[in-house]
Prior knowledge:
This protein has six helices and no strands. With about 160 residues, the protein is mainly alpha-helical.
Amino acid sequence: xxxxxxxxxxxxxxxxxxxxxxxxxxxxxxxxxxxxxxxxxxxxxxxxxxxxxxxxxxxxxxxxxxxxxxxxxxxxxxxxxxxxxxxxxxxxxxxxxxxxxxxxxxxxxxxxxxxxxxxxxxxxxxxxxxxxxxxxxxxxxxxxxxxxxxxxxxxxx
Length: 157
């Protein structure tokens, strides 16, 4: 497993399985952050791969578009019924965690020699980010009731 793949895997596992924050509002906002984190990660990684200079197939671009659409949908679902300060807390925390992960990926990609940087980004987009984005979206579409129930349970007072 490459260094970039380990970085993403480590970050995802840390957030999804180990990180736990006490609830601040009687709702389990930490669960909502963990639900949003993969969506933000897929959205931000997809944005890196959708730049016009990356020569992706239409099928690959569709995966990244689906990830963006999923992220929008799950943000809306998580935000519905929350107070403004709760929405801000959850969205900012999940986005910040994903951003930190993507910054680590960028550092690894930028460590390549300049003449290999594009090739490394293309490789990362097609071998790491595309499968991650597909898995994030597929997890929801294979288990929408489970994820929606997790969201509903986390929002209960």
